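Quick one:
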Amino acid sequence: MQSKDQWIPSKYILKRNKLKASRNKKDVTVSSRLFVDLVASFYQENIPLYVSGNLLDLGCGKVPLYEAYKNYTLDVTCVDWANTIHKNPFLDIETDINQPLPIESKIFDTVILSDVLEHIRKPEELIAE
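Output:
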């Protein structure tokens, strides 16, 4: 992950050791907080069980789960589209994730796709890759 020192919480925040939806309306609208809190609870329960080693955050955006998974990983690689609205300082690789990924096979222990699959034309192909 590039520019770790610039990272700040966005969609998810860790408060009193509990992952929850940000209360910043720019990151999570008031009407979405309940749903995002439920998703945060799922991630908090499962990240310690399944995240380890080298992690690929595919479609990473602002890397909203970084605070939740960073202590379980050896290394984080952030990948997202190059044509997003704002330049993303965290990206290691800019690519169209609807296309075959320019990444070696079998180098990641964990892959996270948070709020990504609904943007993929053929999600089954991405998952198979």
